[in-house]
Specification:
Shape: globular
Bound molecules: pyridoxal-5'-phosphate
Number of strands: 16
CATH superfamily of the largest domain: Type I PLP-dependent aspartate aminotransferase-like (Major domain)
Structural class: alpha/beta
CATH class of the largest domain: Alpha Beta
Number of domains: 2
Helix content: 25-40%
Number of helices: 15
CATH topology of the largest domain: Aspartate Aminotransferase, domain 2
Distance between the termini: 28 Å
Length: about 425
């Protein structure tokens, strides 16, 4: 047994499924995942020393590549004098100020420890602010594992083909209404029946958790108008798209003004992080100023704040990174289309800058959850396993996003395409 398998088999004894988050287990792929030992720039290395070009990037955060020198230095310098205090620090001020000053529609932020915490707290705040209970989410969007979001969720819930999760009381989801992504009619019909009861609509403005599906511009604009008309708050979940599709996130691409925005992943530079922010009059409803209670022992942790600040300032000061990733993304997209044509495989590539999904699909376009679900997951599994043996690390599910990082060069895209060319598709 090789070292990866030995570690993973023993992990199964001590951790359910051998993992701490379900999709990592490669459950439906009949192979063990590689056990990753270290990362450097664009590469990760498993316990056997095998090198992979990494298109997962810790599921998004590692946009600067693994162990970026400035992020490592920030963590090391901070660790010498500040690990945790549970008290105000200048480090949290620096990151909060930087976010508020460089992002649109963020007057104030509250730091938390994960994307899930950010979205569930934003929803609680929206409910407290509006005095309403109901929320709308979109089928296929994933906002973390909070009970109220585990209905028609994307990401791992979708990969496992389950409608939701056991352990979620009916009472926790009775106020969650589901609409269809990119379908304004589905929102209108909900608003027509109970518009004045909806506290918030939460949406991934560029969805990444049913595979990448950008929202249509008109759809988002109309959504924002309907929210205003009904006194409903619009919450953009930019946990994945924030600092990824553009420095200022998806909201900057659409010109639509959300009331609240959630962040995580890139904003913590790879350390456990999250934040939510938005209009001051809403944020001021949070305790200790207001009566919406939300707290956290580790929130604003110095190491996280230092890693986040180093990451965001580096991205902000080098915005040419985004045009570089756009060029590489284009190269990848065109290359994949070409190889698919040569091999007579039907694919649709949805891409927004440095995040994309190759859907194995016979459709003409993929615009929502129902479209995404028709993709050929067996073919995806065959492609994924082949690419892994060729040293290309990809998300192990059709319904996730592939990410580029700023350290990638043309040679990495070429290596991807070369591996793809050598694939012999297995359809069953
Ligand atoms: C859009 C979105 N929201 C929320 C979450 C939950 O974040 P976390 O896994 O940090 O709890 C994710 C995680 O992938 C996400 O992609």
């Amino acid at each position: 047994m090789n070292k990866n398998d030995a570690i993973f088999e023993e992990s199964k004894i001590y951790m359910p499924g051998g993992v701490n988050s379900p999709v990592r287990a490669f459950k439906d792929l009949d192979i063990n995942p590689p056990v990753i030992k270290r990362g450097s720039g664009t590469y990760v290395y498993d316990e056997e020393g095998k090198e992979y070009v990494d298109f997962v990037g810790a599921w998004g955060p590692m946009i600067l590549g693994h162990c970026d020198e400035d992020v490592v230095k920030a963590i090391q310098d901070t660790a010498k004098e500040a690990i945790a205090f549970g008290a105000p620090t200048n480090l949290e001020l620096k990151l909060a100020r930087h976010m508020c000053k460089t992002l649109e529609n963020v007057d104030m932020v509250r730091m938390v420890n994960s994307g899930t915490e950010a979205t569930m707290s934003a929803i609680k705040l929206a409910r407290g602010y509006t005095g309403r209970d109901k929320i709308i989410k979109f089928a296929g969007c994933y906002h973390g594992h909070f009970d109220g979001f585990l209905v028609s969720a994307g990401s791992g819930v979708m990969t496992e083909g389950i409608p939701g999760s056991l352990g979620v009381p009916q009472d926790s989801i009775k106020n969650t209404l589901i609409a269809n992504y990119n379908d304004i009619g589905s929102i209108k019909s909900i608003f027509n029946t109970c518009g004045k009861e909806i506290a918030a609509i939460i949406i991934e403005p560029v969805a990444g958790n049913m595979g990448v599906i950008p929202s249509n511009k008109e759809f988002l604009k109309e959504l924002s108008v309907l929210c205003k008309e009904n006194g409903t708050l619009l919450v953009f979940d930019e946990v994945m798209s924030g600092f990824r599709v553009a420095y200022r996130g998806a909201q900057s691409l659409y010109g639509v003004k959300p009331d609240l925005i959630t962040f995580a992943k890139i904003m913590g530079g790879g350390l456990p992080s999250g934040a939510y922010g938005g209009r001051a009059d809403i944020m001021e409803k949070l305790s200790p100023l207001g009566a919406v209670y939300q707290a956290g022992t580790m929130s604003g942790n110095p190491l996280v704040m230092a890693a986040g600040y180093a990451t965001l300032t580096k991205l902000y000061n080098n915005q040419e990174y985004y045009s570089k990733m756009e060029e590489l993304g284009c190269l990848l997209e065109n290359g994949v289309k070409q190889v698919a044509k040569e091999k007579s495989i039907n694919v649709i590539i949805n891409r927004c800058g440095a995040m994309s999904t190759i859907f194995f699909s016979d459709l003409d376009k993929i615009e929502n959850y129902d479209d995404a679900k028709l993709s050929n997951t067996k073919l995806y599994a065959s492609y994924f396993k082949h690419m892994l043996t060729k040293g290309i690390n990809l998300p192990p599910s059709q319904f996730e996003a592939l990410f580029l990082n700023v350290k990638m060069e043309q040679c990495h895209i070429e290596r991807f395409l070369e591996a793809l060319r050598s694939w012999e598709p297995i359809y069953k």
